[in-house]
UniProtKB/TrEMBL annotation:
InterPro entries for this protein: C2_dom, C2_domain_sf, MCTP_C
Gene coding for it: MCTP1
PROSITE patterns in the cross-refs: C2 (PS50004)
Segments forming domain C2: 20-155, 201-318, 352-473
Keyword Transmembrane: yes
The protein's name in its UniProt record: Multiple C2 and transmembrane domain-containing protein 1
CDD domains in the cross-refs: C2A_MCTP_PRT, C2B_MCTP_PRT, C2C_MCTP_PRT
The entry's keywords: Calcium, Cytoplasmic vesicle, Endoplasmic reticulum, Endosome, Membrane, Metal-binding, Repeat, Synapse, Transmembrane, Transmembrane helix
Family to which the UniProt record says this protein belongs: Belongs to the MCTP family.
Length: 748
């Protein structure tokens, strides 16, 4: 398969793939294979040339183009390389962002057991979200290498599904050395223990002797997008519908769309993780939103973080290149050392000194010290049992992803195992106590993106500290169980006052996710949810009207007396007082066990129907006729679908606040209503309105770049909707999976 050139003096060419050329020089093809561990393969990954573009639709478009047309294909990639021997990954390179001619210059030292096992080289384009694109592969036949001789190798990348496509080349330098039964330097071989982690950072996740924890990023970059000035007009009406995209490495954000303006006012804030000590480059692009066709490019600019000082806010007015206008930003770099991964042997909470330090950091006495630092989360990912089979061998190669908002950490991969043990500890900084911890199990695949095996979503406020629990894995929609359970032990320590104050500011946005898809089942579900909320108001109106019509004389008489009493004695403070009494009444119903209301199963049934509908759509493309018929108005339908979801969620969140779905939020509402009742009782309304008006009129003068927010809406955004309540419900595990049962079985 692989052919070797003559020595450099005779042939000044690198290794190439060419089946027609006979090998020259002394190879080890006929040498008897030594004992396992008797060969050391030193590889230097040099660079790549003319690699395939996979971003901006390059991959799908490439399939449709002829070889002669590929040179005109625009786009870029974020390539990295995997080395595998015998189906096991032994090395993974760092990611080179936005480059089709990457230079790695990385070295790997690999112990080889059998020379007849070729070295398999695969190149992938990194995409945040575990959906990496395949960019080509090649083999290196180890039996054709000369022993103890440095050799330059050129590998032509191929895609087995599209053999005629040119995907570029990879250049290596290799040395194969026989070892006398020694297992020497295996440092690079140990990289396989963190092979999945290089998708998010390029450093090893193994523990260091110097540091007790290996921090995954060095700081946080906070960007506030203020406004745009004199942007380029892209529409026929002389205006644009601008929005902005930000990218720092794999991290991406997208601003909201400002319709029909050349001077948009965004006032949005985004946080990026800073991985490199020297900073990095933030790529910023401005776009004009067009319904039904590709968005128009307005311009681009960059922010060099290495040129900015830390712990200081910088106001930047950036000229858009390849376009017109400016963008105004506020950029702040702050240090961070709060997220880490370690083995079970290193446990912060078991170290008495560290535990006391953590408890002191979040004690009530430190309320106003760093309001963004709300709490500490420690997650022990112990093991999983009975996972789904994902490979043809009847096994899986599972690894685990732990996410808290935009913080994402990974375990190593356990190969060919349905009952993997990871025994890892993840620690997170909590910025919002109402966040949801998501733990997802994937199967690592060779040539494709990782296969989904199961997922659980755990609200932080529902966690019982120090308790090892078996969580039943759910499907992607979090609506029903899938095969397997995962054992976690979670501890949450937080400052309740800080958590309450953070509830009144906007929630942290997540990285750019998949575009909202149009689904007739989802559209129907949102319509039914909104209809249920509207019907509550309609039924209330019918009830009041029946009192006016004297359909029930006793009820109408009682309503009439109550009306006279309330109107005659009405004061403004009675509004929050009534809401306070309603919350208190529901609380006593719940603790007394007299609350006979049952959770509506309508939403859960609809979610299951939606999942079944999605499966049917995947299996039979002819059943997508509904989507195809309304493709021309897809943007409008998606907007309607989202509006229905927002309206229904708003009503459900109000209901769930008074239903004590999240006790922490209901208690917070009681405190707020008590304060409002006292204020309205003792302070005349005109003074309250006067203070409110002065604050609103002077806010821009006092803080011209402040981000507007509504505290009530921010509070309600933390209350789960009925859909989220179903998704966060913890399923009961099979009794056979309980830890006690397992121990008994082991003893037996």
């Amino acid at each position: 398969m692989l052919d070797t050139c003559k020595p450099k003096s005779a042939c000044n060419l690198p290794f190439v793939y060419n089946k027609k050329i006979n090998t020259a020089g002394t190879s080890n093809a006929d040498v008897p294979l030594a004992d396992p561990g008797m060969y050391q393969l030193d590889i230097t990954l040099r660079r790549g040339q003319s690699l395939a573009a996979r971003d901006r639709g390059g991959y799908n478009l490439m399939k449709k183009l002829k070889k002669s047309q590929l040179s005109t294909l625009k786009g870029t990639s974020d390539p990295y390389v995997k080395f595998k021997i015998g189906g096991k990954e032994v090395f993974r390179s760092k990611i080179i962002h936005k480059n089709l001619n990457p230079i790695w210059e990385e070295k790997a030292c690999i112990l080889v057991e059998h020379l007849r096992e070729p070295l398999y080289i695969k190149v992938f384009d990194y995409d945040f979200g575990l959906q990496d694109d395949f960019m080509g592969s090649a083999f290196l036949d180890l039996t054709q290498l000369e022993l103890n001789r440095p050799t330059d190798v050129t590998l032509t990348l191929k895609d087995p599904h599209y053999p005629d496509h040119y995907l570029g080349i990879i250049l290596l330098s290799v040395i194969l050395t026989p070892k006398e039964g020694e297992h020497r330097d295996v440092t690079m071989l140990m990289r396989k223990s963190w092979k999945r982690s290089s998708k998010f950072q390029t450093q090893s996740l193994r523990l260091s002797d110097v540091h007790r924890k290996s921090h995954l990023w060095r700081g946080i970059v906070s960007i506030t997008l203020i406004e745009g000035r004199d942007l380029k007009a892209m529409d026929s009406n002389g205006l644009s519908d601008p929005y902005v995209k930000f990218r720092l490495g794999h991290q991406k954000y997208k601003s909201k769309i400002m319709p029909k303006t050349l001077n948009p006012q965004w006032r949005e804030q985004f946080d990026f993780h800073l991985y490199e000590e020297r900073g990095g480059i933030i790529d910023i692009t401005a776009w004009d939103k067009d319904a039904g066709k590709r968005d128009d490019f307005i311009g681009r600019c960059q922010v060099d973080l290495s040129a900015l000082s830390r712990e200081q806010t910088h106001k930047l007015e950036l000229q858009l290149e390849e376009g017109e206008g400016h963008l105004v930003l506020l950029v702040t770099l702050t240090a961070s050392a709060t997220v880490s991964i370690s083995d079970l042997s290193i446990n912060s909470l078991e170290d008495q000194k560290e535990r006391e330090e953590i408890l002191r950091r979040y004690s009530p006495l430190r309320i106003f010290h760093n309001l963004k630092d709300v709490g500490f989360l420690q997650v022990k990912v112990i093991r999983a049992e009975g996972l789904m089979v994902a490979d043809v061998t009847g096994k899986s190669d599972p690894f685990c992803v732990v996410e808290l908002n935009n913080d994402r950490l990974l375990t190593h991969t356990v190969y060919k195992n349905l009952n993997p043990e990871w025994n890892k500890i993840f620690t997170f900084n909590i910025k919002d106590i109402h966040s949801v911890l998501e733990v997802t199990v994937y199967d690592e695949d060779r040539d494709r993106s990782a296969d989904f095996l199961g997922k659980v979503a755990i609200p932080l406020l529902s966690i019982q500290n120090g308790e090892q629990k078996a969580y039943v894995l759910k499907n992607k929609q979090l609506t029903g169980p899938t095969k397997g359970v995962i054992y976690l032990e979670i501890d949450v320590i937080f400052n309740a006052v800080k958590a309450s104050l953070r509830t009144l500011i906007p929630k942290e946005q997540k990285y750019i996710e998949e575009e909202n898809r149009l689904s007739k089942q989802l559209l129907l579900r949102n319509f039914i949810r909104m209809k249920r909320c509207v019907m509550v108001l309609v039924n209330a109106a019918y009830y009041v009207n029946s009192c006016f019509d004297w359909d029930s004389p006793p009820r109408s008489l009682a309503a009439f007396v109550l009306f006279l009493f309330v109107v005659w004695n009405f004061e403004l403070y009675m509004i929050p007082l009534v809401l306070l009494l309603l919350l208190t009444w529901n609380y006593f119903l719940i603790i007394s066990g007299k609350d006979n209301r049952q959770r509506d199963t309508v939403v859960e049934d609809m979610l299951e129907d939606e999942e079944e509908e999605d499966d049917k759509d995947d299996k039979d493309s002819e059943k997508k006729g509904f989507i195809n018929k309304i493709y021309a108005i897809q943007e409008v339908c998606i907007s309607v679908q989202n509006i229905l979801d927002e309206v229904a969620s708003f009503g459900e969140r109000i209901k769930n606040t008074f239903n004590w779905t999240v006790p922490f939020l209901s208690w917070l509402a009681i405190v707020a209503l008590c304060v409002f009742t006292v204020i309205l009782y003792f302070i005349p309304l005109r003074y309250i309105v006067l203070v409110w008006g002065i604050n609103k009129f002077t806010k821009k003068l006092r803080s011209p770049y402040a981000i507007d927010n509504n505290e009530l809406l921010d509070f309600l955004s933390r209350v789960p909707s009925d859909v989220q309540v179903v998704q966060y419900q913890e399923l009961k595990p099979d009794p056979s999976h309980s830890p006690c049962k397992r121990k008994k079985n082991n003893l037996g």
